[in-house]
Design brief:
Blueprint: E1 4-9, H1 26-29, E2 35-36, E3 41-46, H2 52-63, E4 89-93, E5 100-105, H3 109-122, H4 143-154, E6 159-164, H5 172-186, E7 191-195, E8 208-213, E9 216-220, H6 226-236, H7 238-246, H8 249-254
Parallel strand pairs: 3-7, 3-8, 5-6, 6-7
Antiparallel strand pairs: 1-2, 1-4, 8-9
């Protein structure tokens, strides 16, 4: 069974809240019908501004994670920027409880790395916290290396993970390596909810994909995502796409019609 089975919005459709942000965002409003989660991995995909990070943040805070990221034991804040959506989200949890978990927000990972250094400095001698993250300061690694160190060393079995754009610091080869790590962890009773723009990461087969758009939130097949279709178009006919994108509008409008 998954650790998190379902999420829904506990606000009546007639409530004045539904006309306000973030409830006015179509994908957030679509939560009134409930959102089921895959036992292993669920992806949230869509264009910028469709509510992926807002929804993910609400799920994480409602679960008990720190709003800026980290584990349930992290209790810091550099800026109160998360919405109040979590107050109106209902989570249906299974009877099985995860042993651990982590909320990764790419945009605030620097703050999490700083908090880890602070906690490590305050830890008892002989029990350094940094060893849980590979033994080396995350600030002393590249952005991509620090992300991968987190995945490889801090993530473990029987745990629940919420990740917001984990690909943001990863090269294509590292994204492929992340897929391997994801598969290893789902095989060890882990559940993931991931917001991503990466057509590589969202290709993971043992998952459900929800597309967030102006029409709400709907489950789709991998090949029906805009990310896959656009990337495939570009890779198979990049010269034509580049010509179309980079041709000045005036020149394009003056081209003779060969139809």
């Amino acid at each position: 069974m998954p650790y998190l089975i379902r999420a829904s919005l506990n606000v009546p459709q007639s409530s004045p809240k539904m006309a306000e942000y973030p409830f006015s965002v179509p994908s957030i409003a679509g939560l009134k019908d409930g959102l089921e989660f895959h036992p292993h991995c669920t992806f949230l995909v869509g264009e910028n501004g469709m509510g992926k990070s807002t929804l993910l943040e609400a799920l994480a805070v409602k679960w008990g994670f720190n709003a800026e990221g980290g584990t349930k034991n992290f209790n810091f804040g550099t800026r109160e920027s998360h919405s109040e959506l979590y107050r109106d989200v209902l989570l249906t949890r299974s009877a099985i409880r995860p042993m651990d978990g982590f909320f990764l927000r790419a945009e605030s990972f620097f703050n999490v790395a700083s908090e880890i250094e602070k906690l490590d400095a305050e830890a008892e001698i002989g029990n350094p916290i940094i060893w849980s993250y590979g033994g080396k300061s995350l600030h002393e690694q590249s952005h991509g290396e620090s992300f991968f160190s987190l995945f490889m060393h801090r993530f473990g079995d029987h745990s629940f993970y919420i990740l917001d754009e984990p690909e943001s610091a990863l090269s294509p080869s590292r994204q492929l390596a992340f897929l391997v790590r994801l598969h290893d962890l789902t095989g060890e009773s882990c559940q993931f909810i991931i917001a991503t723009h990466s057509p590589i990461i969202m290709a993971y087969p043992d998952a459900w994909i929800y597309q967030l758009s102006e029409d709400g939130i709907h489950r789709v097949d991998y090949e029906d995502t805009e990310h896959y279709k656009l990337t495939r178009r570009f890779m198979t006919d990049r010269h034509r796409m580049l010509d179309y994108l980079l041709t000045p509008d005036e020149e394009a409008n003056n081209e003779p019609d060969h139809g």
